[in-house]
Amino acid sequence: MESYPETLKTRLHDEAYEYRRDAFLAFLKSPVRDYKESPTVKDYVEITDTELQEMLYGEMKESAEALEFSESANIKINNEEITVSDELLKQGVTVTTMVDALKTQPELVKKYVFPKLGKERIEYLINSAWRNGLFINIPDNAKVSVRAHTIASASASFASKTVIIYGRESKVRFTDTYSTSGQGKGIQGKNIYFFGGESSRFDYLYLQDKGEEVRDITFVKQHLERFAEFQFFHINHGSSKVLFVDESQQYGPGSSFRVYGVNFSTRDQKMDIRDSSCQEGEESNADIQVRGVVTGKSSTIHRGNIDLEEKAMKATGFYDSKILLLSKDGFANSKPGLEIKNANTRSKHGSAISNVDEEQIFYLRSRGIGDQVARGMVTAGFVGSMIEKANDEDFTRKVYQYAESLGANAFLATN
Amino acid sequence: MVPELKIKDLKASVEGKQILKGVNLTVKGGEMHALMGPNGAGKSTLGNVLIGHPNYEITGGSIVLDGIDLTNKTPEERARAGLFLAFQSPVAVVGVKLSTFLRTAYRQTHPEDKVTLTEFYDRMKVHMKKVGLDESFMSRSVNDGFSGGERKRFEILQMVMLRPKIIILDEIDSGLDVDALKLVADEIRDYYSENVGFLIITHYQRILKNIEPQFVHVLKDGKIVVDGDNSVSLRIEEEGYDWIKN
Amino acid sequence: MEVEYSKDAEMEKLLEDLKNSNVKKEDWEFHDNYKPVYSTGKGLNRKVVEEISEIKKEPDWMRRFRLKALEIFESKPVPTWGPDLSGIDWENTNYYNRPDEVNSTKWEDVPDEIKETFNKLGVPEMEQKYLAGSVAQYDSEGVYHSLKKVWEDKGVVFMDLDSALREHPDLVKDYFCKAVPATDNKFAALNGAVWSGGSFLYVPKGVQIDMPLQTYFRMNGEATGQFEHTIVVADEGSKVHYIEGCTAPRYDRNSLHSAIVEIYAKKNAHARYTSVQNWSKSVYNMPTKRAWVDENAKMEWVGGSLGSKVTMLYPSSYLRGPYATTHNLNVSLAGPGTVKDTGAKALHLAPHTSSRIIAKSISIEDGKAIYRGLLRMNKGAEHSKSHVQCDALLINDNSTSFTYPHDEIYEPTATFGHEATVGRIGTEELTYLRSRGLSEDEASSMIVLGFLDDVMKEIPMEFAVEMNRLIKLEMGKLGAVG
Questions:
Q1: Over chain A, what is the mean pLDDT?
Q2: Contact A368 B79 (CB under 8 A)
Q3: Which residues does chain A have within 8 Å of residue C372's beta carbon, measured at their own beta carbons?
């Protein structure tokens, strides 16, 4: 890390220099872990400082392979290169890279990007060291559907930053897919920040399906103005190690935050999936539901805090985690939290970890469905019921496909 | 071929406790049997043992359907052989849709039928109407949030869709109001033919007024103690079970 | 440009710190703010520990154990992951306070002043009516113990731990600090070094005691530490219910209570441990309580945590044998200015084990209630089941509640569920009760007691009455509630 200030001054010396430097300072000042837990508890997905350095100094790389973008994508991102469909631009949507935005959108950058350094150690570091990313600005009252597909080289290590600003009363449906090309053990960090205008409505469908050895670190932040509604569907499937942190910043009264998350961990994958709300707005609400499926020697941890601040009168916050632990060598862990600083609120959390219900399996079998198929169906139903709410054929199909492809080994009969 | 289910000296236990102590019963196509008995006699156990519930251990005897020994077979093998149990309280399977479930089950029980998806769903809709389930149930999760009556209607829907040969109905009338009971009874009578046999497990005589069985058996303390005709059920309605000696 | 310069300089300094911290990661993780205690006067050092051992005329193994524990205590930092413990005055605490008279089995021999205190608390009366035996401890030493003859004849041992160490040294040695080793945490190590008093209860095989046994703890000195060590052994097939009650008067200077409770429920045994603490609001209450639960044994923890300034308490059950079960019921009342960091731990180490945890907390005014728990199912704990439920009630606008459960499941045949809710007294409920003629206060306390009902009904009558009274008192002070 010692030479990073030098890198900042030279290679990353752009319009965001001060922001980058402040973020790095914040990184240095923040403890390795903020203790909401006993120090004897291990970190299940540990990102070491060595790994962070790889990310810090790494570059985006041109892929050697021909890239297979999803056909329906109207924004295609290949490393630093972006292709945007005309149809999207015609609707008044601005799409540029972050690097370009520093020059072409200085006012917006100053207003939205610079004030937000982040909250957590690694998030700070990404805010300091990002090489590029997307900058999207959607005007007031717009109704748009964005389908972005980002393909990075699996061997590349880098940090990126994406900022999505959408105006008041806009209605946006955004499908965001991340995959990799080739083989490699890149460590890839990204911060995705949303800024939702008053009474806006955003449906965000996120899919991470990177190569088996890639390490993925993601921070998602939704800054929600009054009556802004955000609905978030996320799927984590790929990568060897996933740290996925999502936290709403609901300073708007009446803002609404709904999360339906699904993750699959298999082989020796480690996934730390955190979905939290931070609610300041009066009568704001958050409802978070996450589902995990654990097979092989993998581990999944679900964490999530419902944080109701002093100002959040009449706010409600709910968190619900369920994990199916299907294999002998797998590991499931849940750590929900409630931080309630206002008595005039309602909140609740629940978590459950178990194998599939044998009574359900028996019921399906009594109708002629084989044991393995029955287990596949129950598992697919368990996760599918979350993502189906997004009404996206592609996503629904993917989830069922992931669940059903867990294969015979995933389902160790327990009787 | 007229199907035939032969239960011979069947003994079974749950958690080490003997429940069935030697049950003998034969159900053939074209026959309607009723199995009655006081609470705790082992009626539901018999249904569960016949379909192969993993919690019940068969400790003796045999279950043979059309010459195939099912005693040690898995539940799906029994179902594929043509056995069907309408459960007393069917379990909810969250996330698994009715349509997917029935379609998968049908493909497994009738691999020879190359029916298309649309045809299958059309067929399903016709029967849903008959049993009184709204079409919107197709995209709902199996039994999830269903009322007691809806669960029973769905069991009957599965029966007519999967076309089994020997059908065991376990307390199919519980949780049904008079109108629903009539719908279900109609559907059972419609499905009834020379090629299917029924075993209706019930505590009360109520359903038997709608479906008249030719044979009535009384199970008491793990054994069939009375074999007779419908007059047995009428006597039970009037006098209860006290007159039956072990 | 000066701002620039200072930021760069700060960065450099922090980088240097980071470099150093990577070498000694432990220190970095703990944010150590521990200061060693003074080696003279009040406070703690080798000499103090040796002196305690000397006064007690202990066997040599115990003396060596104490010294080893002191080393461990000194090497461990003060935990910073929970409530603020900076108010503990390590240097000015009296680690050993001995009352004048020695321990007695006759109530008449107890010094008058102490007798009066216990009389006020209703101890002798309770013993007569409800108990199979009792021990009373005043500051660091037990002052009285008794056991009904019928149980003594059956081989039951019940006395303070110091007496037990003299009279049954081998029995004590078999169990002392086995479930809670001194290395467990800083406060357990402290207890290991300076422990004094506490109860020793041994119930032989097959003996089922139908009346509870009780110890009463009273901490009287200012800036005193009370470090009792209690061991309950329920041998195979036995049954026992042990109760503890704790009080202290209020002083301006903080006192420290750091106890160890070890419970051994052997095969087929049934042990129940009930404790109700009502320490004054100057006490840091940091006990370590743990049970080893063997095959088919049942362990029940019932707790009421009313007083103290800060409490950190997580009674643990290690389910070591097949079919072992544990129940953990706890009520915490976080009154104005206090912090209750309480919870439970259950570790499933064998097949078919089960655990059920119910925790209820009430925060009044700026009281802060925290639930912190650990539930672990090890690989091989097949078909084990667990359910955790924690509910928090916030009484005032500035009341707060935090819930931090931690669940680790390594076994695919296990079933685990956790639920937590936070809420306040519903206006609807309140209005309904008031419409039937209840005052607002009455209605509120009725709702609060209803909220606590699951746990209250498990608490012995005399304590439940006391808890009801305290809760009503705290609620009453607030005037209009809601």
A1: 90
A2: yes
A3: 38
For range A57-84, the mean pLDDT: 83
ipTM (interface predicted TM): 0.86
B98-109 and B117-131 helices cross at what angle (nearest 10)?
Answer: 110
pLDDT at C100: 54
CA neighbor of A109 nearest in space, from A22, A195, A173: A195
The single-letter DSSP state of residue A355 is -
Domain span including residue C1: 1-26
| Domain end marker among C313, C338, C370 | C313
How many Å apart are CA C143 and CA C108, to the nearest integer?
11
The chain B residue lying nearest A373, using CA atoms, is B104
Give all strands of the β-sheet with B197-201 in edge-to-edge order. B83-86, B166-170, B197-201, B32-36, B215-220, B223-228
Q: Count of CB atoms within 10 A of residue A139's CB?
A: 16
Look at residue C255 in the predicted model and tell me its pLDDT.
84
C76 and C210 assigned to the same domain: yes
**Residue numbers in chain C where pLDDT is lower than 50:** 1-3, 22-41, 101, 479-482
Tokens (6 digits) for A190: 């990204």
Whether A320 contacts B94, CB under 8 Å: no
Q: What is residue A42's predicted lDDT score, i.e. its pLDDT?
A: 53
Domain B4-239, classified CATH 3.40.50.300, yes or no: yes
B14 touches chain A (CB under 8 A): no
pTM attached to this predicted model: 0.83
Residue B78, chain A, CB below 8 Å: the answer is: yes
Q: Give contacts of B87 with chain A, Cβ < 8 Å.
A: 363, 366
Query: Taking Cα atoms as reference points, which of C118, C146, C140, C459 lies closest to residue C273?
Result: C459
B105 vs A: CB within 8 A: yes
> How far apart are the C-alpha atoms of B42 and B221, rounded to whole Å?
7
Q: Give the list of residues 6+ apart from residue A253 with CB closer than 8 angstroms, or none.
A: A226, A227, A281, A282, A283, A284
Q: Which residues of B53-82 are buried (b: 16+ CB within 10 A; e: fewer)?
A: beebebeebebbbbeeebbebbbbbbbbbb
Is residue A155 predicted with pLDDT exceeding 50?
Answer: yes
Residue C392 domain-assigned? no
Contact between residue B158 and residue B90 where contact means Cβ atoms under 8 Å apart: no
pLDDT score of C115: 67
In contact, A183 and A213? CB cutoff 8 Å: yes
Closest chain A residue to the Cα of B49, Cα to Cα: A366
Co-location of C217 and C307 in the same domain:
yes
* Whole-number Å distance between alpha carbons of A203 and B160: 41
What residues form DSSP beta bridges with C84? none
> Given CB atoms, is A328 within the 8 Å cutoff of chain C?
yes
Residues C139 and C238 in one domain: yes
What is the tens place of the pLDDT at every residue in B118-149? 999 999 999 999 999 999 999 898 999 999 88
Domain ranges within chain A, ordered by starting residue: 4-355
Q: How many CB contacts within 8 angstroms connect chain A with chain C?
A: 153
